[in-house]
Amino acid sequence: MSRSNDNLQFAAETEQGPLPWKVLIVDDEPEVHDVTHLVFGHFRFENRGIEFLSAHSSAEALDLLRRHSDIAVVLLDVVMESEQAGLDLVRAIREELGNTFVRIVLRTGQAGQAPEHEVIAAYDINDYKEKTELTAQKLATTMYAALRAYRDMRTIEAHRQGLENVIRASAQVFSRQTSHDFASAVLAQLTDLAGMDRGALYCTVDRRNGGQPEQFRIAAATGEYRRLINANAADRLPTAIVDSLRDAWHSKSHHFDRDHYVLHFIDSHQTESLLFVGESWNLSPLEYKLVELFCTNVSIAFDNLHLNDELLSSQLEMVYLLAGAAETRSQETANHVRRVGMLAELLGRALGVAPELCETLRYAAPLHDIGKIGIPDQILNKPGAHTPEEVAVMRTHAELGARLLASSHRPILRLAAEIAASHHENWDGSGYPQGLSGSAIPISGRITMVADVFDALGSKRCYKQSWSPERIRAYMQEQRGRKFDPDVVDRLFEHWDEALALREKLPD
């Protein structure tokens, strides 16, 4: 979520309003450019107009694409300087430039030279239209569909990058073992995550005799506040900042305001600290969510400074938090992922899996759907059936989650990556993303699938009511040997009452 990352700023705004969508017209006929401009003169999508870029050859188009990485749609002619010029440009866009985001709409006036079924099969395009069929209405419909797809892909990419940055930043904070190092690491990571015009400062609370704090001592700082280290914040800072520090201290919670925020931390020894970030910060909704997630992660890390003997336990709380973030976006409860972890451990032990792996399963299985954080809300929480295109987007969460976790060297996160990639693989080979079958599916994925489906069926979702235990059992039996590993289902039936008791222990 670095502020310098252009991929997270695809919906940036200026003082005059949101930036227009960039659309590139590639055609050697000037009248095609004129007509396209005329048709889209008043076109708007999500309160954004269109900025047209024009190219009359594939070479000119390629140069524009190199200089404008945020082009959303290319309206591309096939026959220009050669009969294959447009198709050659498609390959250059996807392979040479590596641009998988831009939506390419092929427009041809000579369909016989580029038959639709052959072109769609051989080239990575998103739509194919004959110029003779493109009325103004059809062209507008095509544009809406292309921009909607581009927006969704950019949203997925922004969530992926944001989550990667939060995980990386959180890891940097977790690695610190002293209060000063902790404060410095938090300030440094927030600088990268959210951007700051003036800087940030970290205060310890001096509360003698258990009363009101006598002062907020500035223990660490960045930017303009660096000169105030060891000073009393109440004596050296503007009244508005001091008031925010006091508000956070009184409420014992993070305080977010229009141009700054204060994070409140309290450890197991009731030692309190405050972290001020500002001023004039400007976060998008996505960045705001990720900063909040990072702030909660920081709270966990702060407690770890004073709980070294319980370090593993505190790190595992972060695992549940990250898993819960994905589940919360899909309107599911954090207790769902906890129950999945506990049930995965129970099934692993019943199957005779090594005790160490069973324990790791308990903490890795909750991250099975972490990739859902990269799925747009309008798809993730859709109450009705998904379209084929939406199904394809939904299914990306398995590989997305695996990629996010696979780079870690921690055993729990590495196992979580394996689970994220395999918990939708069916025993009979009909699952995704790889179509694995039988024992080729990792045992961790087979166990987590049974645990996840069992618990999800018993929970209320945006698209269904909760099922009765009898109906769940019948479904698990029906899918034994199809969707589920028969051995895992058999162990579930053997421990049926224990599995049901988990919901009573950790209800939604």
UniProtKB/TrEMBL annotation:
SMART domains, per the entry: HDc, REC
Give the superkingdom in one word.
Bacteria
- Does the record's keyword annotation contain Glycoprotein? no
- Modification 4-aspartylphosphate, positions: 77
User: What keywords sit in the KW lines?
Assistant: Phosphoprotein
The record's annotation in PANTHER family points to: 3'3'-CGAMP-SPECIFIC PHOSPHODIESTERASE 2 (PTHR45228:SF9), CYCLIC DI-GMP PHOSPHODIESTERASE TM_0186-RELATED (PTHR45228)
What is this protein identified as?
Response regulator
Q: Which organism is it from?
A: Dokdonella soli
Taxonomy of origin reads: Bacteria, Pseudomonadati, Pseudomonadota, Gammaproteobacteria, Lysobacterales
